[in-house]
Amino acid sequence: MTQSHKIRKNELKLCMLVLGVQACSYPGTTISGRMSAVKFYYKIGETITFTCDEGLELRGAPMLRCLRNGKWSNAIPTCVNSTSTTVAATTTR
Asked: What is the pTM of this model?
């Protein structure tokens, strides 16, 4: 994330606190996988889905929902190979 993205993210967070708007922040993504929508913030009730690259299996919830408390409904899933070795997940909290 570049410095300008960090500043923008902090500005958005401050606006949301001042306005009392609830949302969920970027949850992180799964290495060797994809996320349906990448944004700084997600509206309450918004969902994102995860998929893994070919040859890997998703372990965990394939869909996360932004809850009213500003938290995600589940942890981000991981992608594992056929021998069940976990491929790491990254988060930016």
From this structure: 0.65
